[in-house]
Each structure stands twice: as C-alpha cells, then as structure tokens.
Amino acid sequence: MEWYIAVIEAVVMLFAWSLLYKENPFYRLGEHLCIGLYLGYTLYMGIDVLLKRVFIPLATGRGTISLVLAMILGLFFYTRYVKPVAFLGRWSTGVLMGVGSGVAVMGAIKPMIVGQLEQGNWFAPGMTGFNNFVMTVATVSSIAYFLFTYKPVGWLGYVSTLGRAILMACFGVTLGTFLLSNIGFPIGMLMKLTVTPGSYVSLLAVAVIAYDVLAGRKRVSTK
Amino acid sequence: MGAKVALGAFPLADRLVFLLFIILMAIPILRPIGLPIPVTDVTRKSFKLMDSLKQGDVLVMCFEQDMGTYYSGAPPDEAGLKHAFLLAKQRGVKVILFGTSTAGSKVYIDAVLIDTEEFWKPLKYGEDWVNFGWLPGFETAMAGFARDVQGTCKVDVNGKRVEELPMMKNIKTLNDITGIWYSTNTNPDMLPRQWSPLEWKGLKWSICQTLFASVPWIMPYVDKGSITSYVADQRGAGEYEMLLGKLGMGATFMDAQSIGHLYGIALIIIANIYYLYTRATKKSASKEK
Question: Which among A86, A211, B73, B258 counts the fewest CB atoms within 10 Å?
C-alpha cells in the first residue's frame, strides 16, 4: 500500500476515535467525510449500474421489453414531485414490495418454517439427542410464552415462565456475542495505527491530546 | 439543516475503559504472544468442503459486506479467497465473485482482491475467475441468480458482457454451481431462503461466513442442512489460515481477540460486582433512614 494512503487511513481513523476523548472538530470532519463519501460513492455506483445494465444495452439495440418496463417503473418513482401524476409512484413501490416479499416468502417456507418444525430424535447418540430434547422444550415453551388466548396459570404458567427464561438466555447470548464480535473492528484498525506510517500519526494524536489536557488545566487554574 | 447534536465528553470512567482497551489490544499486535489456535470441527468441515472442489466445479463467492465491517469480514473472506484461487490454479475450479446487498460490496471485493493479488494474478480472468461486482437487488438478485445466472449477471465489473466470458458459457442456474461461500455481516436468512442445497439438487453445499453474533442465528439452518457449514469471524479466519497453511490477518488478530474477550469478561464481572455493591449500600442506607 502507498504510504500516503496508509497516512490518510490512520488520520481518518483517529478522527473517528477522537470522540472517545471528547467531541471536537476533527471528529465532526471525519463524520461528515464518511457520510459524504459513502453517499457519493453510492450515487456513482447507481449511475454506473444504470449505464452498464440499462442505458448502454438500450442504446446499442440490446434492450428487452422487461428492461424498458423496469426503467419506466423506476422513472415512476420521480413522479412524486409532480402532484397530478404522483400516484404513479405507488405502482413502482407496490411492484417493488410485492416482488420483494414474494421472493422472500417463497424461499422462507421450507428452511424457516417447515424445516424448523421438524424436531430431531431425542434418543440420538451422544449429545445430539440431549440437544434435540432441549431444542424441543425451548421451542414449545417459547411459543407458550406468546400464547395470549389463555391466561398463563397452572401448568401453562410454568411452561410460559420457562419460555421467558429461555428467551432471556437467548437474547443474552446474542448481545454477548455481538459485543465480543465488535472487538474485531478496532483490532484491525489498531493494526494500522501501530505500524509505520500509522504509528507516527498515532504519536501526533497523543501529543495533540496531551497538549489539550495541559492547556485545559491551565485554563481552569487561571479562572 | 438538521439540528446539531452536542455529544460532549464521555465520563472519565468510560474513557479509562476505552484507553485500557486500546493499550491491551496494542500490546499483542506490537509483540505477538503466540497463543495456540485450536481448530474447531465446523471450520475443518468448511475447509474440507472447499477442498473437495475438483476440475470444472464452480464456486460462487458472494460478499454481503461493506468497508465498515472490513476488519471482521476480510480475514475469513481472504482466507477463503486464497483457497479458491489456489484451487482454480491447481485443479481448474471456476470462481465467481459478486455482492448484492449494498454498493459498498464492490469496494469490499476490490479491497480483498488487492490483499490476495498474488493468488489471482497467475489466473486468467474470464476463464478461471470472474468478478461481477455489485448486482443490485439483494435478495431479489439472489433469487434471480439462482434461476437465471446469465440474465442476472449481464455485465461484469469491467462492463464486459457475460457472453464474452468463456467460463460462464455453461452456467445457467444454481444447479450448475457446486458450492457457495456466502459472506454476510448482517442477515444470513437470505442464504437458506434462496440458495439452499436442499432445494437445488446440483448445489452440493453452502458455507456461511458470518459474525460471531450471527452464529446462534444460523445454527438452526446448519442443523437442518439448509446451510452446510460456517466460518465465524476472525476466529474462524485464524483457524482456516492454519488449515490452509497461509497465515494472514486472522492469525495475526487472534492474540488481540483472546485478550479482548478476557478484558470483556473482566469488565462484565467488575461491573456486576459494582452494581451489587451499590445496590446493597443503597438498601442499607434506606433501612437506616
């Protein structure tokens, strides 16, 4: 990697991290840079895709009716700026939502609904049997917790309480693993900040913070 | 213009927690400890699946990642990519790359390709591997790819038409694909929904490369076979690199990961002790009143 790219990378990373010290103009600059560049890049990619997949094929006589239809539906989105024809934009939204949910639901039935209802053998060898048993108990009790038709009293109350405990354990595991997963992000960044030329940028940042701390103390003592 | 929200400064205790975290993470990066990396069964299974590819087999590597998750996603993805390119060179496996979720997936693919340059440089583009960049549409694009590969991947990242890429000639549907490496930083549900080996008889297996946090999420799919195996985060990357014999980012980050996790657990314990202590003192104070 070119040295100046590594320096820019380290500078922008430290701009972002500087919030951990306190809010400052460098952090704001990094924040605006990040959002601006991301949106700019997304716009560029959108135009690039339209050019390669729609306009060039249409201009070179390789366009199809479905491509023209998709383009018209896409243009309908912009009719919301013209009040008399704004309703056309709803057609595009309708098609987009209909296709999206249709595709998702069609694929979901087997792996997400039918597949998960098939419970494993409780008497399978090793830990598999025990795991299958726990899974069945967890599924039934979790569903029982969301059963609102009957008041959870008696045996249903116990099952429902077990379901709540299982849900809490599940959310705890998710939160814990999510937090520990996030450790991975700063580790990679630290890798850049601790090797040259990133390390020089880090030292400069430490010096700036040290100066600010000392200057802050001075300000407090003069007051 | 939206109102500017003042963030101010974090409390001193929070800043100390972060400072200590940075120092602890920096130590093993500067001076590696060399903690052992035991290989889990699931990573070994993923490696074996990839290694089972033979001449003429087609591997799809789909990256639903962005630069925001680069340091979490790239280590395992680069290990997988290196393996795929080695197989392309040694056995004639065909590799297809793309992403469908965000425009950023194209930058992500570019970034991992820069890091793995020495592995794809000896290969012939269009014959051994191909990069379609960003295929907009996310799940719709995935569904389209499964049913009509040529119609969904009309042009590659360089604007070359799919008809001009020799390796794509006989790839029509997902049944012509042997294996899938699906890398995601968010929702893994799309993989079993659209590209399940149980639904597509030609597709032999699918591997999901995901965050640690998503492992409990995908486990029901792995149990039922909708996803064949998975590689989890930097830990999975370290293990995969050990099996591949090509150490990279994953192995480098493992020491810092282990220390980071220990630090996280220590913080949880300390915070809970502090919470119980303050609760007990508040109770005793109210009793005295």
Answer: A211
Which pLDDT value is given to residue B204?
A: 97
Tokens of B251: 């192995």
In 3D space, the residue among B42, B10, B4 whose CA is nearest the CA of residue B230 turns out to be B42
How far does A123 lie from chain B, in Å, by closest CA? 16
- The pLDDT value recorded for residue B278 is 93
Phi, psi for residue B116 in degrees, rounded to 5: -110, 25
Question: Which residue is associated with the tokens 């726990």?
Answer: A134
SS3 B183: strand
In this predicted structure, what is the pLDDT of residue B1? 44
- Two tokens, residue B122: 């000896």
pLDDT of B273 = 95
- B260 inside 8 A of chain A by CB: yes
CB atoms within 10 A of CB B123: 15
What residue ranges of chain B have pLDDT lower than 70? 1-9
Contact B264/A179, CB-based, under 8 Å?
Answer: yes
Per residue in A121-158, pLDDT (tens digit) is 888 888 888 988 998 899 899 999 998 887 888 888 99
Residue from the list A22, A52, A178 with its beta carbon closest to the beta carbon of B9: A22
pLDDT of residue A153: 84
Residue A62 CA to residue A59 CA, distance in Å, equals 8
CA B90 to CA B55: how far, in whole Å? Answer: 9
**N-term to C-term CA, chain A:** 49
CA distances from B116 to A7, A195, B38, B205 (A): 22, 20, 25, 24
Instruction: Give CA–CA dist B150/A25, Å, rounded.
Output: 49
Task: Give me the residue from A106, A180, A191 closest to B212, CB to CB.
Answer: A180
Query: What is the per-residue pLDDT across A189-213, written as a single tens digit (0 to 9) for each?
Result: 888 898 888 899 999 999 998 898 8
pLDDT-derived band at A2, boundaries 50, 70, 90: confident
**A23-74: pLDDT as tens digits:** 889 999 999 999 999 999 999 999 998 898 889 988 988 888 988 999 999 9
Partnered with residue B183 across adjacent β-strands are B63, B209
Q: Evaluate whether B127 touches B167 at the Cβ level (below 8 Å).
A: yes
Distances (CA, A) of A189 to A102, A172, B168: 40, 27, 38
How far is Cα B106 from Cα A149, in angstroms, rounded to an integer?
Answer: 49
Residue B252 CB neighbour total at 10 angstroms: 21
Task: Tell me which H or E stretch contains B94.
Answer: strand B94-99
Coil vs helix vs strand at B180: strand
**Which residues of B, range 83-102, sit inside 8 Å of A by Cβ?**
102
Contact yes or no for A53/B154 (Cβ under 8 A): yes
Tokens of A122: 């409780």
Omega within 30 of 0 (cis) for the link into A197: yes
Predicted TM-score of the model (pTM): 0.87
